[in-house]
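Students often ask what a 'structure token' actually looks like in practice. Rather than answer in the abstract, let us consider long-chain-fatty-acid--CoA ligase, a protein of 620 residues. Its sequence is given first.
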Amino acid sequence: MLALCTALAGLLLLLPLLGNLLSPYWWQDLVVSLSVTHRVYRCLRRLQRCPPLTLLDTFLEKVQSHPEKALLLFGEQVYTYRDIDRRSSQAARVLRDGVGLREGDSVAVFLLNVPPYLWVWMGLAKIGCTMACLNSNIRAKSLLHSLGACGATVLLTTPDLKAAIEDVLPSLQQKGIRVFYLSAESPTSGVEPLQGQIDAASEEPIPVAFRANVTSKTTALYIYTSGTTGLPKAAIITHLKLCRMVTMLYICGVKAEDVIYTPLPLYHSAALLIGLGGCLEVGATCVLRPKFSVSQFWDDCRRYHVSVIQYVGEVMRYLCNAPKRENEREHQVRLAVGNGLRVEVWKEFLQRFGPIRICEFYGATEGNTGFVNYTGKIGAVGRVSFIQKMFASFELIRYNVERDEPVRDERGCCIRVPPGEVGLLVGKITRSSPFNGYAGDRQKSEKKILRDVVKKGDRYFNSGDLLMLDHEGFIYFQDRVGDTFRWKGENVATTEVETTLAAVQFIQEVNVYGVPVPGHEGKIGMAAIRLKEEMVFDGEKLYTHAKDFLPNYAIPRFVRLQDALEVTGTFKQCKGQLVKEGFNPALIKDPLFFLDESEKRFVPMSPQIYSSILDMKLKL
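Now compare that with the structural description of the same chain:
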């Protein structure tokens, strides 16, 4: 017995050494896997109770444990956990008793980044209503479409968005949608102000009976897709999905003592669910900013003693492109959580602003699978550990970019790609990893489902993203399926070309896309470029750089200079309209350039060059 115990003790002592030999990340893999498992189990256990314990209950528990702790910092305003609880109860009473809302109703919120966003969210949750988060930048047709998709009969907004409301108010009234301002007075006829009633309402707790029928499958929120192409879609966020999404900050190591800086729009899942929701989950403090500001970013971090920052899309590039300051490394930020950070920006950010731990993650608002890069490996969007591989519910499958469809074998099933090869990410749809789809349009939900992937009859969520898993278990984002294009028999990943061209001295931002050319198969590369201030376009330098670092088929043949590159509210570059406009100098007012191989530079685009391309007299 003694010998056995000694042997077991020796084995335990050897485990770390063996783990390091097998994988240098084994200990992190183990710790994170156990942490995720514990959190998911806790989430499921709480939601299975009767009544279930949702994020609202997590918030109320925090109110009980530290009522006077600051939850939200906004400018000079400070809102404690108790403040938000009381104000949300007041809002819940007015919305139920005054407006007439009942459990199960959908309510659209059309708000900027303001504190009412949080107490309206918690207030609606207290009476069992679903909150639809409308993009505050949409107008007219998109606004009406978004309201129709979620089935809301009530719209809450503020006079800040008065012009957008008045533009569609007759249509809203015709559809029976009531509009209310969260203000003391209303500057718009037909829109009632609610703030006075809310201020006068009781702060007493709201009876649980008002939300008695809420379950884990109940829709908690509608979060709209960014709308890079087409009209926004309302992704269904159930209480189960919400519970999982708000654990991201916890997985990344955020504690109750942290102060999280969120300058991103609250209508998007990154800020609302991961940022603000994550604060509720761990009991931390959130600094909310009306909108992202490059010049104020680090000043805000110092002012509020921020320890965790959120980023998305090109935010980090904007910070790196800002003029250097002597005190830009003087801050308390230890962690950055977000997605969309490119390799060259990642390196520059760390070099310039100090040893900040970056926790990059991958996931779609409506998706059923995701990854977290908890090791800090530069460029990776996540890690698939040896433990996760055992329970993996995702696949990377071979994809035909030209035909825009997965490649299938003789059985009609998809083909897995080996490590090191790019494939389409698909997530298996199961009871524990469901795809809830979009509100208001079953067809759009159905289009995101791939069938017969591994075996006949299975169903997978189509992410629309191309990723690559390396031999160490790190996973890398490559491109969107619609962004990747095929030219001269080769697949061109726009993100790779953008990363390469961004290194050119005079380029501030670049957006690469493929455009069709009459008489040619596939699409040819084109780049929309924003120049750095007081710098000019140099066609020869761009040609030389592209030739040095890109294969010939990937070099953009056309360049379009723009004063500003259009992006969504979450800083995703818009390509759809640029593709439609193509490279016709008669239609485009921006400066256009064409890659002239004979002159070894990009030359101004002319009607003569355009005609020669259409007549196939110029070789592309």
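One point worth highlighting: DSSP finds 20 helices and 30 strands in the chain. Ask yourself how you might have guessed this from the sequence alone, and why that guess would often be unreliable.
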